[in-house]
Design a protein that fits this description.
Number of strands: 12
CATH architecture of the largest domain: 3-Layer(aba) Sandwich
Bound molecules: D-glutamic acid
Radius of gyration: 18 Å
Number of domains: 2
Distance between the termini: 22 Å
Strand content: 15-25%
Number of helices: 11
CATH topology of the largest domain: Rossmann fold
Strand order of the largest sheet: 4-3-1-2-11-12
Largest sheet: 6 strands, parallel
Shape: globular
Structural class: alpha/beta
Order of helices and strands: EHEHEHEHEHHEHHEEEHEHEHE
CATH class of the largest domain: Alpha Beta
Length: 261
C-alpha cells in the first residue's frame, strides 16, 4: 500500500486514534504531528486557534504530502474542518464528540460529555446535541486539566486520584431518579486515562471512545480494504516545537510503529 496519512493532534492524545488506524490498515505510512508548541488547545479562543491550525496545516501538508489528514482532536475538528476542506483538495477525517451513539444507546436518557472547554463551547457540539440528543439530558463538562494530566501520566508522572476525580465527577448527575449511564470521551487524550476514570467514577457507566469509528471512517472514505495482517508501514512522530520527544514517550511511540522524527 502506498497510502500516506498525516495524523494530527495538539499532543499525544491523537495516538488513541492512530492505534485504531494502525490495527485496520497497518501498511499505511504515517506522519504523526503533535502541536506541542500550542498545547493545550482546550483554553484557546476559537478564532485565534482556527487561524493557527489552518496556517500550520498548510505547512504540514506541504512538508509531508499526505494523501489524507486525520484531525485526531475534538477541539480542533469542531472548529477547523470547513476551512481546511475549503483550502486543500485532499480528504480530512475529523474527530467530533460521539454524542449520537451515546444518545442512541442510553437507557437512562442521561449522558455526560467529557471534553475540553473549547469543545464544550463550540456551536458544532451544541448542534450535535440539538440534532441527535434532544430527548436526552446532556451534561457537557469542559476540563482544562485532564488533557495535561493525561500527557503527564503518559510521561510516567504520578497523578493523584483526587486530581482526576474532581474533573470527571460533574459528568455524573441524577435527573428525576435517572443517572448518567454513558460518558462520551470527547477529547482524544482521555482514553489514555480510561482505567483511572473507571476506578474513580461514582458509579459504573459506558465510556464512549470514537477512535474505532474514526478508523472505520478513514477506511471507507479512502476506499481501502482492512488488511490487519499486512506488514506495518513506516511511521514518524514530530513535535511542532522542534524539541526532542521525552524519553519516557519513546516506547509508547515505538509501540505504535512511530520513530521520533
Ligand atoms: N486531544 C484534544 C482533543 O481531542 C485536545 C487536548 C487539548 O489540547 O486541550 O480535544
Amino acid at each position: 500500500m502506498s497510502l500516506r496519512l498525516l495524523v494530527f493532534d495538539s499532543g499525544v492524545g491523537g495516538l488513541s486514534v492512530l492505534k485504531e488506524i494502525r490495527r485496520r490498515v497497518p501498511a499505511a505510512e504515517i506522519a504523526y504531528v503533535a502541536d506541542d508548541a500550542a498545547f493545550p488547545y482546550g483554553d484557546w479562543e476559537g478564532e485565534p486557534l482556527k487561524d493557527h491550525i489552518v496556517a500550520l496545516m498548510g505547512r504540514l501538508i506541504e512538508r509531508h504530502r499526505p494523501d489524507a489528514v486525520v484531525i485526531a482532536c475534538n477541539t480542533a475538528s469542531t472548529l477547523v474542518l470547513p476551512p481546511l476542506r475549503a483550502t486543500h483538495a485532499i480528504p480530512f477525517v475529523g474527530t467530533v464528540p460521539a454524542i449520537k451513539p451515546a444518545a442512541e444507546t442510553t437507557k437512562s436518557g442521561v449522558i455526560g460529555v467529557l471534553a475540553t472547554p473549547g469543545t464544550m463551547r463550540r456551536d458544532y457540539t451544541r448542534e450535535l446535541i440539538r440534532q441527535f440528543a434532544q430527548s436526552c439530558h446532556v451534561r457537557l463538562v469542559g476540563s482544562s486539566e485532564l488533557a495535561p494530566l493525561a500527557e503527564a501520566a503518559m510521561r510516567g508522572e504520578i497523578i493523584e486520584d483526587e486530581a482526576i476525580r474532581i474533573e470527571i465527577e460533574p459528568a455524573f448527575i441524577e435527573v428525576q431518579g435517572r443517572r448518567t449511564d454513558k460518558v462520551v470521551l470527547a477529547c482524544t487524550h482521555y482514553p489514555f486515562l480510561l482505567e483511572r476514570f473507571q476506578a474513580l467514577a461514582p458509579w459504573p457507566v459506558d465510556w464512549i471512545d470514537p477512535a474505532e469509528a474514526i478508523a472505520r471512517r478513514v477506511v471507507s472514505l479512502l476506499g481501502l480494504t482492512e488488511a490487519p495482517e499486512e506488514p506495518r508501514g513506516a511511521g514518524s512522530a514530530y513535535l511542532t516545537s522542534g524539541k526532542s520527544w521525552p524519553a519516557a514517550l519513546l516506547p509508547l511511540l515505538a509501540g505504535f510503529g512511530l520513530k521520533a522524527g
